Each structure stands twice: as structure tokens, then as C-alpha cells.
Amino acid sequence: MAMVDTTPPDEIMREADTVGWKAGLQTIRRVTALSFRSPWMVTIALVSTLIAAVLQLLIPVLLGRAVDQTQMLIADPAGAEAATSALWTTALLVLAASVGRGVFTTFQNYFSESVGHRVGYALRLAYYEKIQRLSFGFHDRVHSGDLITLGMLDLEGVRMFFSTGLVRILLLGILIGIGGYMLLSTDFVLGLLALSFVPFVAWRSSVSQLKLRGTWLELQNRLSVLSRVMEENLAGIRVVRAFGAQPFEMQKFATASTSALELAHERVDIRVRNTSAMTLSFFLAMGLVLWVGSGKVTNGEISVGTLTAFLTFMTILQMPVRQLGMLVNSFARTATCGERIFSLLDLDLAITDKPDAKPLEITEGVVQFVSVGFTYPTAKTPTLSNLSFSARKGETIGLIGPPGSGKSTIAHLVPRFYDVTSGRITIDGQDIRDVTLASLRHAVVVVQQDAFLFTTSLENNIAYGDPWAPPQQIADASASAQLAQFIATLPAGYETVVGERGASLSGGQRQRMTIARTLMLRPTVLIFDDSTAAVDAGTEQRIRATIQAQAAERVTIIVAHRLNSLMHADRILFIEEGQIVEQGTHRELLALNGRYAALHRLQVRPDDAAGDADTTSEKAQS
């Protein structure tokens, strides 16, 4: 059953880590299909592998012939000229075979790596594109460090499959299959002795590689934790410095780093012990071949050249046999890593266009919430319940209430960052789920609480939503956000590059930048999600005056905790536990003497509010 992007990320990863053999084969088929999207490169790589393997198998035969020709030269000086000529011919053939093998091996390595990089390129683009489209609900729950690790280490494991899996299986099949047949057909007993190390080495290699694969997956998880610690430290470096928490952060990083280092040492231990055992078995087999082969040479059953060919074949086969484990590991790693990547790529999007979705058509600009209910995927209780209200073009709606009451949720539902659980939201009578996302988000823009800026110029940050906007439009948006005077004081003006996440600007300047970026788009519905909290009162008043002057062109919704941010609104909705408990103008709500009035007294006249609270407490005690 296909999962959607509201599925918890750890469940997706757990599904991938316990992948069955059928799902693993399906994943390998998908990766193989990706590889064959470059057919001519694949053909060159496979043909080069075939030729290189055949030439490598010729070398022991030619060396054995050279040894026999040398013996003939020693035994029969009279035929020295003919023997020398034959020896030179064999030497040239060995040289040609060696050079040819080197050339075709180069072709094999180059084109197999090229195919792998093309697979990596295609998966990287698909992965990044998918991340851009996944819902806010997905990104709310998954850590960005885990996504980065998945898009680097797992993708690298899949990228290498063509060269370490498909090409290697062809190479090993030729070397072990044809090489083993040549040995057994030449001398069956000696061939068995020469191949006696193969089962043990193949077994130990496979076991060790599977162990290394298991520890590699765990190492990947530990490196993911390490990346997460580093990313959080870099993002919050000012908090770390402000609280003098460098020793604590160093200890946290050292703990994660030590955990990864210990596992890396364990992997080295597995590799060294198994390599030593495999090398020992190889030399024992070679000793047996020398012992039995020398007796056969003495008895005249085989020539010295044949024994030389056997020993050379064994030397050539040693590495391919060891690579059987790597081959097993390549298939296992591709199945696991590929499943993790494809599990994310195959997620059905929770927020997407309907097949028959049409662009949003703006006429009167009326936004309406009709019995809207909403529950976050990981929440047990609803955030909004049966909420209804409407707003018209030219109207400013203020939303206020205690933290967690659902104010920001309302702001995020209008542009479909999330979809309503029940009820519907309409713009000019059109259900926002029935229109295209592109047209909806062009008409509805939210100024977020998080004033995120990119590491680029001020101009590029302001014009992010419309990169081809004329300079005058950028300047007008900056002036509306009360930024023009500040930018004029900078030596490079609009070309000034801000630091990472806008770190070179103050909090108020960053928030004004995000407001300017939003005003650039001239939306039909403009939503401020507590986006002036870091702006001083005087600047906020000037921004508000500018926005009010343009309010006739749009619906304006302001989410705020400070009453002075929305006292000018045409209508104020007091939200509590996901429902509207009070609504009206500022004066009407004060006259109502309810929750809004109590909050007003607390913010505007805190001493009076405290006195009222004490009086209420005394009455309760009496």
C-alpha cells in the first residue's frame, strides 16, 4: 500500500530497513533500469569488461608458454634461433594482452563510473524535487539532517551499483567461470587444488561483507546523528555563545563522534581479520599446488609452463573470488539504500492538484471558512472545530487568542500548507482544494513568523518571489516595509549580501525583509502570521499605515499577540481552543468586557489588570 507524506518518517525508514527479498529485487530492477537510460555508455562498459576479462585470462596461458619455450631453448641450443623467435612472439603477445587489458579496463572504469554518476544525477534531482513538494506536515516531523544524510550516503550507495554490481558480476563470471574451467580441463586434480581456496574465501568474504553492511547501516545512522548535532550547533551558534555552552556542545559532539569512531574501528577489525583468514587459505592452496604440481612436473605429467600457468591463474582469481563478498554486499546495499530512497520518492503527496484543477479566478475576493475543522497528523485532539467566518476585499481581519488556540493554523490553511480535516475554505465560492496550487499561492501569501533569508543580495531576497521584477517595484516594496532608508545607508545598497539566514541583520530588519518580499507579489489575500513581533512600535505603525493604504485591493488577515498590531482591524476574532468565542471591532469587544477586554487590560494597563486579578482572588477566598 502506497504511503503518503503524512506517514511518520521513522516508519518509512523502518519499512526500508526490513525490506524483503521481493521488494529488494524490485528495487534492484529499478536501479538497473535507471542505469540503462544511458545505453551506449552501458554497452561500452560491458563490452570493455568482456574484452578486458578475456585478455586477462590469456596472460597466464602466454606466460606458461613462455616458460616452456625458455626450457626448450635451454634444452636444445641448436634450435636457439627458432626458440628465441617464438619467445619474442610470446613476449610481444603478453605485452599486447597486458596493454589491451589496461586500455579496456580504463574504458570499463570510465564508462561504468559515468553511468553511475548519471544514475546519481537523476536520483539527486528527483530526490530534491520531491523534497520541494512534500507537505508542511512531513517537514514538521522529519529532521533536515536525516534528509541530507539520506540524499547523500544512501544515494551514493545506489549510484555505485552499476560499477560494483552489474559490471562486477560480468567480470567475476568470466574470470571465475572460464578460468576455473581452463584449470580443471588442463589437470583435474591440480585444478581442484588450485580452486580449493575459492569456497572458503567466497564464504568468508560474503559473511564479512554482510557484517560490514549491517555495521555500515548503523554507522550511517550514527553519522546522521553527528550531522544533526553539527547542524543544530551551527544554526544556533549565537545561542551557544550567549550562554557559554561551548563545553557542553563539545561534549555532545564528542559523544556522537566517539560513537561513530568506535563503530568504524569495529568495521576495520572485521575487515582485517577476514582478509587475513582469506589470504592464509589462498597461500595454503598455492602451497598444495606447488607441492603436488612439482611432483607432476618431475613425473613428466605436466610441464613447468603449465604449473606456472596454474599459479598465475590462482593469483588472478584471488581478487575476483574475494570480490564475491563485495558483490553480495553491493546487491544488499543497493536493495536497502534504494528502498529508503524510493520509499520517499514514491510517497503520495498529501497536498497536490486534483486532476481537473483549474486556476483560481478572483472576482470579489471573498474568503470564507465554512465549518472548518482541522487536526494535525500527530495530534489526538482537533486544533480547529466548526470554525466559520468570512472576509471581503478591502477588509482587515485580526486574529488573537492564547498560544495554541489555532491562529497560525488558520493562516496556514488558506494557502493549503495543510488541508482541512472537515468543512471547506472558499475564495469567491471556489473550494481551494479544487484550484491549482500555483494560482492559489500566487493569490494568497503568508508573511511567516520565521524571518528566513537566503545568503544572497538584499535585492535577490526581496525579489525572491518575482526574480524578474523591475527595480522600481523592488524599491516600492522596500519603502512599504520601511526598509528603503536602511538600505540607502549601506555602501553596496541593494547589492549588499546578507549572511547565512540573514545573520548580519537585526531581527526587525529580517522581518521587514520578509514583509517586503511578500508585498512584491501584490497578493489578493495577505496574511501576517505574527510577523511584526520583532519590529519596534514606531516602525510597525508606519508599516501598518502603508498596508492600510493598499488594503482596498486585498483581504488582509493579521495574526498577532499584541493588541496594538490589530486594533485598527475592521473585525477582530478572538480564538480559543480552535473556535471563535468573541468577534467584533476593537470598541465593540471592549464594551463586551469579555476575554478581549481582559487581555486589553493586561497589555495596556497591566497594573490595573493585576489589581483586578488580586480582587478576584480575594473574593474567591472569602
Automatic annotation (TrEMBL):
It comes from the Bacteria. It is an enzyme of class 3 (hydrolase). Residues 44-333 form the ABC transmembrane type-1 domain. GO terms for cellular component: plasma membrane. The keyword Ion transport does not apply. PANTHER family: ATP-BINDING CASSETTE SUB-FAMILY B MEMBER 10, MITOCHONDRIAL (PTHR43394:SF1), ATP-DEPENDENT PERMEASE MDL1, MITOCHONDRIAL (PTHR43394). This is Putative multidrug export ATP-binding/permease protein. It comes from Flavimaricola marinus.
